[in-house]
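lol forgot to send this yesterday, sorry. struct tokens for the thing we talked abt
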């Protein structure tokens, strides 16, 4: 799969939405009503779904590409690429938090650190209770846990079932997840706060990306995408930036019942459109300037932003500039000193240097 420059900018938009959402939620001078509405329209949730869909789309496209090129999919090569891409920056982040606790308490207990290190954070609430500060510092790692669980699940399924049946399996999970969220909400009230995090209730966003990558292999679907793609992309952006957060605020339970899935469907259309028909205007916005630069930093920025956008840190004191600069600075150091050397090592081993599927 050739590198799609517009995806770098799209990842930049996704991480900006996450940063904006956390800032709006934790900036103390805002009134309660401002927190509510600004937090909704900053739409960090859509930023997360966008990352998930893009990951599913790229992972599937790369696996299909490998099979078309070599006649097979190597799970060993896949997991080696993913490990080199994901684990160094993550474990350095986790180790740094544990060391920094010597001078500043982040509330990270040994059991919480173990849950983070084993990529089980999206289920860790079943067996650990972390202090509120620890829940915030490591709380975002539910997304990485879900992503890692997806890596263990999807490539083997694609190999075992083949393209067609794997597509049907993805569709079944897309239908299943909203039903599972609703059933869990009513039958297991203690799990309500985790409905968008657990594998069995939240894998639909990743599956939508996978299914989109499978569908665009069909020439008729690609032709339809090219013909109607711009109108669909405009609708998708309108949904993500306006209608989705509005519905989430006005209709009780909407995100759980349908919002997460509809957000992912909108993201999938935008991603497929950019892949197969990226017009000059979109390319100009997404391939140049600060957005692709932020997209390159997005994984490290995802890891470190939680530390700087804490509800008890600079934002609580009414300062927005310092936490943003701190998060971006830490991400740049992580990207420059850890991610890039790891990627150069991977390229040196003759692996695919254009694997951009990251959480």
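and heres what i got for the seq, position by position
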């Amino acid at each position: 799969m050739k590198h799609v420059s517009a995806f770098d900018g799209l990842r930049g938009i996704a991480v900006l939405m996450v940063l904006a959402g956390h800032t709006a939620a934790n900036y103390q001078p805002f009134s309660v009503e401002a927190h509510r509405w600004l937090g909704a329209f900053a739409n960090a949730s859509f930023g997360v779904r966008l990352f998930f869909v893009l990951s599913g789309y790229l992972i599937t496209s790369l696996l299909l590409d490998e099979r078309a090129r070599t006649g097979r999919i190597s799970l060993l090569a896949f997991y080696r690429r993913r490990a080199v891409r994901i684990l160094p920056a993550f474990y350095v982040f986790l180790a740094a938090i544990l060391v920094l606790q010597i001078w500043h308490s982040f509330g990270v207990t040994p059991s919480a650190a173990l849950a983070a290190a084993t990529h089980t954070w999206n289920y860790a609430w079943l067996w650990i209770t972390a202090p509120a500060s620890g829940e915030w510092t490591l709380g975002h790692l539910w997304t990485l846990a879900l992503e890692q669980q997806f890596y263990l699940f999807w490539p083997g399924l694609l190999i075992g079932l083949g393209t067609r049946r794997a597509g049907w399996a993805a569709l079944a999970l897309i239908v299943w997840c909203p039903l599972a969220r609703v059933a869990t909400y009513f039958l297991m009230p203690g799990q309500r706060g985790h409905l968008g995090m657990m594998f069995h209730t939240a894998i639909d966003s990743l599956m939508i990306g996978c299914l989109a990558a499978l569908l665009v292999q069909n020439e008729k679907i690609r032709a339809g995408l090219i013909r109607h793609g711009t109108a669909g992309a405009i609708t998708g952006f309108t949904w993500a930036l306006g209608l989705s957060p509005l519905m989430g605020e006005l209709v009780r339970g909407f995100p759980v019942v349908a919002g997460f899935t509809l957000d992912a469907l909108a993201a999938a259309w935008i991603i497929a459109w950019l892949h197969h028909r990226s017009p000059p205007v979109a390319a100009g916005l997404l391939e140049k300037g600060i957005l692709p630069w932020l997209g390159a930093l997005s994984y490290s920025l995802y890891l470190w932003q939680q530390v700087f956008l804490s509800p008890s840190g600079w934002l609580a004191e009414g300062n927005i500039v310092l936490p943003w600069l701190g998060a971006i600075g830490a991400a740049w150091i992580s990207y420059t000193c850890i991610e890039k050397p790891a990627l150069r090592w991977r390229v040196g081993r003759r692996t695919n240097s254009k694997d951009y599927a990251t959480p």
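The mean pLDDT is 90. anyway ping me if u want another try
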